Protein: Bifunctional protein FolD
Organism: Maritalea myrionectae
Amino acid sequence: MTAQIIDGKAFAQQLRHRIADHVERLKTEHGLTPGLAVVIVGEDPASQVYVNSKSKQTKEVGMNSFKYELPKDTGEAELLNLIDELNERDDVNGILVQLPVPDHIDADKIIKRISPAKDVDCFTPENVGRLAIGLPGPVSCTPLGSLMLLRDQLGKLEGMNAVIIGRSNLVGKPMSQLLLRDNCTVTVAHSRTKDLPGLCRTADIIVAAVGRPEMIKGDWIKPGATVIDVGINRVDAPEKGEGKTKLVGDVEYAEAAKVAGAITPVPGGVGPMTIACLLANTITTTCLANDLTPPSDLTA
Ligand SMILES: Nc1nc(=O)c2c([nH]1)NC[C@@H]1CN(c3ccc(C(=O)N[C@@H](CCC(=O)O)C(=O)O)cc3)C=[N+]21
């Protein structure tokens, strides 16, 4: 048996088409053009690549994109002022400050300053709480994208055993909330978990979000299970030539693909969904700010 490969790149493209339709409707029926502001501090090349692709996709779906590239020595107060300004602007419906920020800036303080109504990452305490109790609002992008792929693959998730590996605020915790809401039996594993391989073998759904290259081994996977690999790790690839690198996930892909029912590849799996869901959240916040019901196909 060999696993079905879950094509996150293709799914994300379809999702962006639906988002473009919603943007068009907001424009023609309500005179609204959603706008997303992306702020990056410093010149980390990987961050720049992500931010550029976010801006490009924002424009492609017909939204306004506002990009702020600030020098790495930008002061915390200056960044807070920019956020205040963006919070006030009617043409900005979403604000994303690319993480990580330089060490002299307190990321928690920055996140807290973003208006929850424009917090398209779902990082603010208000929105984390709303997600936990099931109120409408933006939903953490990577977990939302992962959930969409799981529902598309499996239909109803009810009653399934889901093991999430990793308990971060960005992925593991919000993912557990979403899978609980879909009536899975959820276990969140972490670095102190006993017998992780044995626990994984009980899982119908595995979500790997630890940030360690190929840590989850093929023989930890129950035959037929669905595997969502959130990890994006850049590693050396001497087989491609001296000094070359490649991206791998948190799952030992080649071995896992022999036993799993379905698996997301890296790249081309969850990553593209994360960006598409950022755009989905911008539609959601635009609707909520204008007393419109957010489209049900763009949220959890
Ligand atoms: N405020 C904030 N929100 C974020 O959502 C956020 C952030 N900061 N900081 C950095 C991380 C990382 N992240 C990724 C999104 C898409 C891909 C993605 O599309 N990856 C491609 C591969 C891209 C490549 O080749 O490098 C893929 O998996 O196919 C990767 C990583 C969002 N992040």
Summary: The mean pLDDT is 98.
